[in-house]
Amino acid sequence: QVQLVESGGGLVQPGGSLRLSCAASGSSLLIMGWYRQAPGKQRELVATITSSGTTTYTDSVKGRFTISKDNARNTVYLQMNSLKPEDTAVYYCNVLQFPVKNYWGQGTQVTVSS
Fold first, then answer.
1. CA-to-CA distance for 100 and 114, rounded, in angstroms?
2. What band does 1 get if pLDDT is binned at 50, 70 and 90?
3. Contact 7, 24 (CB under 8 A)
4. Where are the alpha helices (DSSP H) in 53-93?
5. Per-residue pLDDT reduced to its tens digit, 39-62
6. What is the dihedral of CA 32, 76, 93, 101, to 10 degrees?
7. Is residue 5's pLDDT more than 90?
8. Are 12 and 82 in contact (CB under 8 A)?
9. Residue 46 CB partners (closer than 8 Å, separation 6+)
C-alpha cells in the first residue's frame, strides 16, 4: 500500500509561481505524476516522471511547469511558473507501483486569480 501526502497548493496571481510536493511511502514506484481537474472538466494529465527520470508534459504547460523527483525522499515536485487562470484546478499526485497498482493523493487546490 502506497500513501501519498501532497502539499503546496494555494492562491496565486497570474504570472506567479507555486511548487507542489507529493511524498510517497512504499517502493517499486515506476511512474510519478500530477493530474488536475478543473470544475466541470475531466481530470487531465499534467506531467509525469519515470523511475529513470524521463519526463512528459501536456502541451499547455510545456515551458512553464517542471516535474522533478527526489529519490532519497520518494518525493515528486511540480514547479509551476507563469501561472494562468486556466491552470486553476485541484491537482492530484499519482503513482504507479510495480506491477500495475495505481494510487492517488487527496488533491490540493491551485487557484490563479487577481
1. 41
2. confident
3. no
4. none
5. 999 999 999 999 999 999 999 999
6. 30
7. yes
8. no
9. 33, 34, 35, 36, 57, 58, 61, 65, 78, 91
